[in-house]
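Model it.
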Amino acid sequence: MKGIIKNLLVRLINLTNMPHYIEQVKQDKKLKHINASITNNGGLFYHEAEVSNLTNDKSKLIIGKNTHCRAELFVYPYARKLQIGSDCYIGKNTIIRAGDELIIGDNVLISHNVTIMDTDSHEIDNGERAASFKKLTQYGHPAKIGNVKIKPVYIHDHVWISYNCCILKGVTIGKGAIVAAGSVVTKDVEPFTMVAGNPAQFIKALPQQ
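Modeled.
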């Protein structure tokens, strides 16, 4: 019983401190944990967030107003854009990588340990893959895509992606959809539907409001 009470008190203290913690994040003007350029329209970056925009072009990495980011955001040198809308939440240990175009709408909730990528990151051919890795370790990420397959990802407004999910290249997730925990999304998700599984499959329709 004492253990249960202690846990409840700890949770209450954490909730009480949350507004203060957010204020600290707002005041972190220098964004010391952020690497490279970003257009920040009022987004909030928590201390565990990591941002790397290898294009060094602020217009290619845009974060909307009141979006809370605890994730790793990574933009390859050859990417067109990574854009996240307003009033979103992106959880801890989530990885979002853009090699083409990756657009996330407004009011999107992305839980922890989620991976969203619009690129395969490596070539299919094993010889090319080995050679590219050697070049990467010597010279860093290449300026051109080469033979790596990429295809845009679009996540529309009011989507909820639960924890431990994987969203692969070429996928569009429609407005108001829910991706259940642990799902691997390999094809488009219709608006106001729930999907689950590996690969993710239709579970049920959701109310439209």
